[in-house]
Amino acid sequence: MLSIVPRHYFLGFIPLAAGAELITVFGVVNKASGIYGLLSIFTGHPITAAQLVLNVISLLLLPVFLYALHSVRRQQALPVVAFSYIYFLDMLANLAFTIYFSVTWFRVFDGAATAEAAAGTSSSLDTASERGLSITIIVLALLFKVYFCFVLFGYARMLVRKAGLRSDNGEGKYMKQLQYIMLAIAPSFWRRGGRRAGKGRMVNTLEEGIEMY
Q: So which domain of life are we looking at (predicted)?
């Protein structure tokens, strides 16, 4: 009956539709920042291969996020479902890049901290507090990213149920196949589940069950 995927609200008080739009806007801004990353090539600013790949991926996904923003605002179920999967894959890619950049940064940080400690200009307590703060910020950012992913899937599920979409009722040759692939994954998540109650009505949440009885 209970689910970690939001059903109605973002952050507990913002409507799910507004939350999904806000998350998508943040995503558009984030992907657009890849333009400035690539501009560093022409300005002579040093950039690693990993940073270059990340900026290229961001630019390639920018049109996808812009179209997704249009779909989220117009409450188009199938495009929002597709965007939820894309956002999930993008989250995994960002996780991999974050781990790589964090490990690289901590190696540089440890080297600099060791040199400062040897010179007597830094204490081990300062180094530990800075490392702890950095790890906390990284973990919180990743947790928010995961939560944003849950919100998008929750909004997509709401639109799917509102439109009455199933894995077997798609229209058009290619759209039907795409709908089947996306909704066949974890079908119990997308459809209205629960036990029968009353006149054939499905009980989907704990609150609905309490209201009925």
A: Eukaryota
- Give the H or E element holding residue 185: none
DSSP state, 8?
S
Element (H, E) at 202: strand 201-202
Residues 6+ apart with CB under 8 A from 175: 78
Q: Calculate the CA dihedral of residues 64, 65, 70, 71 and round it to 10 degrees.
A: 70
CA 12 to chain centre: 18
How far is 128 from 145, CA to CA, in rounded Å? 26
Helix, strand or coil for residue 204? Answer: coil
SS3 (DSSP) at 205: coil
**Burial of 2 (C-beta count, 10 Å sphere; 0-12/13-18/19+):** exposed
